[in-house]
Give the backbone structure.
Amino acid sequence: MTLWRIWRDGLLLVAGMAVACAVGIDVARADETCNSPYITKLIKGQEDYVYVWALGVEGVGDGADKLVTVDVHPKSKGYGKVIASVAVGSRGEAHHMGFTDDRRFLWAGGLAESKIYVFDIGTDPAKPKLVNTITDMGDKTGYLGPHTYYALPGRMLVQALSNTKDKGGVTGMALYNNKGEFITSHAMPTDGGGDGYGYDLAVNPKKNVLLTSSFTGYTNYMRPLGDLVKDAEAMKRFGNTMVMWDLKAMKPKKVFAVPGAPLEIRWSLKPGDNWAITAAALTSKLWLIKPDAKGEWQAKEVATIGDPAKIPLPVDISITRDGKGLWVNTFMDGTTRYFDLSNPQAPKQTYAKVTGKQVNMISQSWDGKRVYITSSLLANWDKGGADNEQFLRGFTWNGKELKPTFELDFTREKLGRAHHMKLGSMALRAGS
Amino acid sequence: MRFGRAARRAGGALRRVAAVATLAACLSAAASAVGHEAAPLPPLDFDPPRPGTYTLHRIMRAPDGEVLGLDGHGQRLSDFTRGRITLLGFIYTTCTDPDGCPLAYRVFETLKQALAAPAFRERPQSNAATATAVEARHGYAEARRASGGLGGPVARPPMSSMIQLVTLSFDPLRDTPAVMRQYAGSRVNDGGRGPRWYFLTTRSARELVPLVEGFGQDVRHAIDRSNGKPRRELSHVLKVFLIDPAGFVREIYTSTFLHPQTVLNDIETLLMEGQNANELRRLKP
């Protein structure tokens, strides 16, 4: 009915269509720096909202996982405040989210289960609404812990972390259409050097390639970190590979040895660039994936993040839109670092600031002037006591200094643990 | 036997070279008058997987509804999306965004030209069974009967006749059948060169909306605040849908992935899928 209202506007519609097409509004091939290139409608100006997918904490508020909408428009009276919160009614280790290609819906899930929650953010971006819960991933695929939600045209490719059989790290990807109907699944390779593990995925459509990374399974990520690190056998069960796939055929082309759990993958968005970068969490290294002189894809260690001996644990990265800079959050030392990527073969750290007692996700606006940071890694891996800060913090970045602009205390607000973020805008409202 | 296979493979390779050469020539050809003008398409920046080496999964069932042909008469959209392999794209005739409607038009035009060329018009032997399967399943029984019925010689239509192009406007107010006829130009009556290209519109938004939403073709208002004054505008992102003869969407192309070469490979993959299905049926007791 939304579109019907659009057409009811009659002549305004016709005039608007002509104008829109003439100015080429946001027919996008990239999102604000780190999303699927198929996602439409870039927010190139000031974002209005940050959506935070928060883990429920027993005894804190209703204890359920929830999608929290925060007003981040500096000219708004509610700047830095919660304007909406949608609880999903249970606690399932809320983790990541992803937009559908039309950016009308936001898919989110938890690592403790196989459920996927679909929020309508198009009807009213200020008030997300839970409109669907997909519950068949476990039965259809045997995969557990949906992690990355990556938009393909009319579809969502979901990378899982684990499996329902032994809850180890061997897993795969599930493909759904935008209506939430299951299409097919793709197992991570266990031959040709593959360890079968999964974590993130990212597409380079111009080269018809999909790149995947690897983490660990339920038995590890749901275990208290203090116990886990003392278990030498369990510590062997982390991913040490990345895989380059033929995107069209969805077949593995090459398995790269990338030790130490390579996590988030970012393709350079600069036109003409043809490389991706990732951070290996356990070894604290940056890796570059790029074709060699013969056109063969290769993975190469290109930089060290902090002092690997102290296990700073790089947990999230965010690339600038021009591919010249990379934010890296290291969880253990609560530090936000900036690397100069002018030469991606030799990234150099040029800035560092302690932004929390523990920091996890980092997101930036398209223009790079605003940076948002959250605190929670995993419920059982977060720090304890006074170090267990739970927040969303906003900063401005002028190329030299991160300056705090607002802070939202998720514990005080009874919201839980702040994890993944996505940006929203009232300009993206579907119909009006 | 082995020699025969090798010869067929060699023949297939030669035909593929001819088809690629044809496609390359069409890619570099200037856009025809009428419709959208657009710059020549660049070549693909990768080697796509060979047809038949990958699977195009059923993404969703294509929606159905009432549409208007160029004669202004109402018909079901399914009349244009079933029985053949269909490439369907939404456009509006006033669109000028180079990554939008003009790109789709250019790709459709290139495909039509390519499929009209001898390399595609002459049915390769390796595709004979494919054609038979598609014919048997999806509406070429008439041709079979005319040529002697089952067991007799089969009159195989050219590959291009198993494919159809559909351009559907999502601007019913402006894009009337008369406007669409002007937009289509000579492509309506082209003497049967290449696949048929249908130009459709709808009577009203009420009839269009279920189709647009059923396909997941996003069309929305955007608020442009670049000049400080909110301004309502409508925008869309190009999507082109490959639909199998049974009416299931099997691929969705956006501007980053819409290229005649990948579309042709996908069409051939669907044709080969029909061949395999037919062979399986024959093996069944």
Notes: Residues 1-31 of chain A have pLDDT under 50 and may be disordered.
